[in-house]
């Protein structure tokens, strides 16, 4: 059969994907049944769960097909830049490479020297924001964040007083907001210095980020909440990957059907809560699919 249109090609790929997915599921079930090692069956791996896996596969492939058609139909097609938040994947790769030497250095050096080295790394990253001609790429994008990475390991066991730390965080937030407002008013948001104080490596954010980290790290939460948090943690990477789709869809719906919800006082909390809930529910369902769960 000759495929003349992209939709025919995608439909064929969908059929192949579903057929291969079912074949893999059958192979897993066969291997589990014939294996000499006793693997206790999970309660949800029953006939109903298997049918749910297939239905979720159909839904997922359908969404991917729609995304493919929308991408091809727009200017630039498949060669357009990826979503803005995917830079974090490059950070993860760089951190995996440098985590062993950083951990070894922290374990050998005295704590005070490790703190100084982390502070110098963050200061250097802040200075590079003001330099022209220093452009990062996929291989070096993680470098400015190595200071945060090391500082997080050092502050993990730190015991701070919540009162002064909260005051320091509040002051840093107010100063950041005030300086950003002044610079944007004078230079414009698209100028070189427009969002300097709002960036991750600005001097005020360098104070704000460790302060809020220590605040959350010093919280004492109930055991019931800890169990819920333990179940939520495996979903975080998947939530991060899919949340822009949910976020932009919600805001598009606000603008179309409920413009009043675009007011920041309503938009920020409502959109945040709905984005987290919908993204977590989607990732939780996707993780029920044995083949796909490895990706999220």
UniProtKB/TrEMBL annotation:
A biological-process GO annotation: enterobacterial common antigen biosynthetic process
Molecular function terms, GO-annotated: O-acetyltransferase activity
Gene Ontology cellular-component terms listed: plasma membrane
Entry keyword Cell division: no
Protein name per the record: Acyltransferase family protein
Keywords: Acyltransferase, Cell membrane, Membrane, Transferase, Transmembrane, Transmembrane helix
Compartments, as annotated in UniProt: Cell membrane
Organism per entry: Bradyrhizobium septentrionale
Start and end residues of each Acyltransferase domain: 77-282
Stretches that traverse the bilayer: 84-108, 115-132, 138-158, 165-184, 196-216, 228-246, 266-286
Entry membrane topology: Multi-pass membrane protein
Family stated for the protein in its record: Belongs to the acyltransferase 3 family.
InterPro entries with a match to the protein in the record: Acyl_transf_3_dom
């Amino acid at each position: 059969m000759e495929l003349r249109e992209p939709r025919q090609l995608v439909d064929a790929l969908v059929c192949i994907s579903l057929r291969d997915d079912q074949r893999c599921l059958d192979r897993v079930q066969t291997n589990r049944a014939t294996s000499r090692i006793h693997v206790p069956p999970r309660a949800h791996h029953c006939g109903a769960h298997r049918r749910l896996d297939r239905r979720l596969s159909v839904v997922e492939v359908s969404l991917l097909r729609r995304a493919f058609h929308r991408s091809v139909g727009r200017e630039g097609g498949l060669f357009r830049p990826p979503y803005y938040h995917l830079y974090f994947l490059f950070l993860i790769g760089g951190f995996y490479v440098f985590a062993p030497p950083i951990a070894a250095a922290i374990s050998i050096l005295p704590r005070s020297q490790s703190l100084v080295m982390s502070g110098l790394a963050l200061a250097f990253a802040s200075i590079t924001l003001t330099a022209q001609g220093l452009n990062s790429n996929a291989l070096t994008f993680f470098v400015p964040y190595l200071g945060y990475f090391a500082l997080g390991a050092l502050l993990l066991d730190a015991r701070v007083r919540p009162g002064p730390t909260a005051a320091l965080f509040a002051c840093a937030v107010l100063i950041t907001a005030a300086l950003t407002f002044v610079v944007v008013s004078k230079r414009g948001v698209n100028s070189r210095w427009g969002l300097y104080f709002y960036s991750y490596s600005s001097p005020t954010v360098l104070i704000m980020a460790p302060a809020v980290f220590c605040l959350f790290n010093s919280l004492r939460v109930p055991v019931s909440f800890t169990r819920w948090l333990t179940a939520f943690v495996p979903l975080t990477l998947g939530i991060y990957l899919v949340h822009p789709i949910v976020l932009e869809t919600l805001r598009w719906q606000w603008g179309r059907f409920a413009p009043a919800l675009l007011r920041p006082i309503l938009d920020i909390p409502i959109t945040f809560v709905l984005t987290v809930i919908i993204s977590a529910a989607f990732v939780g369902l996707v993780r029920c699919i044995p083949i796909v769960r490895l990706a999220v």
